[in-house]
Amino acid sequence: MKRHFDRDSLLRSIGLIEPGDLVTYHGSIPELHGLWLAIPCLCRLCTHADEMGLPVLRYHLIDPWEELSGPHHVRPESITRSAAS
Ligand SMILES: [Zn+2]
């Protein structure tokens, strides 16, 4: 079987936040500080930067309970993996 090397395993190998991790947001928008589920931002802007080879790793945050959509393009520095996850 061919080894599948996708973005998820890449994230794991470099020890960053994995898609679906519970994180605490402490970035530039105080109203949004709190717990979120982090998934990779797959908007056109971020996907395009990725395809261009730019080291852009941004997250899209969703509400873990109501699955409401939160902020997009969140930088890794703005979130910390939650101890509760
Ligand atoms: Zn984005």
Task: Give the SSE map.
Elements: H1 7-13, E1 21-25, E2 34-40, H2 44-51, E3 59-62, E4 79-81
Antiparallel strand pairs: 1-2, 1-4, 2-3
The site of zinc ion has 7 residues, from helix 2.
Structure, explained:
The protein has 85 residues and is an alpha+beta fold. The chain has one domain. Helix content is 18%, strand content 22%. The chain contains 2 helices and 4 strands, in the order αββαββ. Strands 3-2-1-4 form a 4-stranded antiparallel β-sheet, with no helix packed on it. The mean pLDDT is 82. Zinc ion binds next to α2.
User: Helix coverage percent of residues?
Assistant: 10-25%
**Cα shape:** globular
Mean pLDDT: 82
- With strands numbered from the N-terminus, the spatial order across the biggest sheet is 3-2-1-4
User: What ligands are attached or bound here?
Assistant: zinc ion
Backbone CA Rg? 13 Å
Residue runs with pLDDT of under 50 for 5 or more positions = none
Question: How many β-strands, per DSSP?
Answer: 4
Q: How many helical stretches?
A: 2
Number of domains: 1
> How much strand?
15-25%
In N-to-C order, the SSE pattern is HEEHEE
- Assembly category: single chain
Largest sheet: 4 strands, antiparallel
The computed structural class is alpha+beta
End-to-end separation? 32 Å
Task: For this entry, give a set of tags.
4-stranded antiparallel sheet, 85 residues, alpha+beta
Structure described in brief:
The protein has 85 residues and is α+β, with helices and mostly antiparallel strands. It has 2 helices and 4 strands. The chain has one domain (7-81).
